[in-house]
Amino acid sequence: MEPTKALMIVFLVVLSSLIRFSVCRENYASPPSLPKAHYQEALLRLNKLKTSIDVGSPSPSPGENESGVFLVTLYGADPTGNSDSTEAILRAIQDATRIPSKKRHLMPGVTDLGGAQINLQGGNYLISHPLRLPAAGFGNLMIHGGTIRASENFPPSRYLIDLSETSNKGNKTQKASPNPSQYNYEYITLKDLLLDSNFKGGGISIMNSLRISIHNCYITHFTTNGIEVQGGHETFIHNTFLGQHITAGADPDERSFSGTGISLAGNDNVVTDVVVFSASVGIMLSGEANTISGVHCYNKATAFGGTGIYMKLPGLTQTRIVNSYMDYTSIVAEDPFQLHISGSFFLGDANVVLKSKSGFINGVNIVNNMFSGSNSGVEIVHLDQSNCPFKQIDQVVVDQNIVKGMNLKATVARGSSKGNGTSWTVDFSKILLFPNLIRHVQYSLLSMSGNEFPQYALRNVSHNRVVVESNKIVQAQVYVTVNQCSDI
Q1: Whole-angstrom Cα distance, residue 194 to residue 283?
Q2: Are 485 and 393 in contact, with CB atoms under 8 Å apart?
Q3: Domain match, 394 and 417 both
Q4: pLDDT digit string, tens, across residues 183-225
Q5: Domain range for residue 27?
Q6: pTM recorded for the entire structure
Q7: If DSSP states are collapsed to H, E and C, what string results for 113-137?
């Protein structure tokens, strides 16, 4: 507390005590005819004056905030969205990233800001250029609780929130710490935000960063990417809605939807409980070892040229897609390697497309999914071999999927043939995924001709048709199981 203010408060307290003493004396010593209202009114005015003075510590200026919570309106940000708030919010970010007196680190070279928060206070803020941290090398920071919209002057193809190490002028910034780090930022949380790109660019860009969390956000009106992740790893995106246009499906302009909801060009990222409701591509994956779970894509129907999830990393996919909902939009994987798709629902002829770029496919599981279509002859798993046929095929399992109104495809199949003769053929060509490929066959012959014990053998498996022949004419039924992927 300031010394002058403290002395003033002491003076007022002493003065109040003297007046109380004087009033008490008048109550007993003054003549009965002397009015007491004068003293009572003076005492009341003094009490009001005393209570109007804040006896606590003076409020710090925004730049002197020691609580770790930075309220953007204290820096002059306009929560009504009528005026530009860019510089005010950047000043709040500048203060939040001041190096603490007791310096701590997360990863080497990443300064721990101690959980500092940029609080948007539920406001609606207009910005004219990206919101960025003043330098690379910060961590343990949250931006949350409001709406950010791009103004008409926002530069095209930029992002509302930009976590990269390039300044607004395109120059490289200095590190927040002299210690070198391979990551720009660590443990930055973007939470409870509505980001409106106003068809100027994208929503969030994260470059070469570690353990970034995007939670409960609504990102719309982007032209490039709703969320872009380049390099780094362990970005978690969850409970988030993304759409270029605000719609709830069956939009008359769906054919014109463009942009990408989420672009992951990094490793070990997780997308959970996310809805992409309008974009040309829902999720683009060009990094390894990513997990997609609980995602609903109805961004743009495949019939209109859209794709729900596109894996563009031939030979290095290593992606798991589980418990998701592909709503009229498909999954595409180029030369997939270690790809797992299970527990998902494909509606409206949505399917899985395995696209050959160099003819390589290995370690693919597409199992335990549900497919529902329009009886238009669409295959649940389709091979796109327009570039070149798949030539290196190993450990591919497509099995145990539930299908209605679409053509079943699998790498494991069972069938039988019944007749009187010496040859039985079981044709799997309509079911097996890969043409002219059977690597393992199990078969048995059930004779119905009394005591006949014919000799029989497997004679041919070409063109996905299994032929079993016997040495004599017999009434029999042949049971066959085939596998395209391996002997296991």
Answers
A1: 19
A2: yes
A3: no
A4: 999 999 999 999 999 999 999 999 999 999 999 999 999 999 9
A5: 20-53
A6: 0.84
A7: EEEEEEECCCCEEEECCCEECCCEC
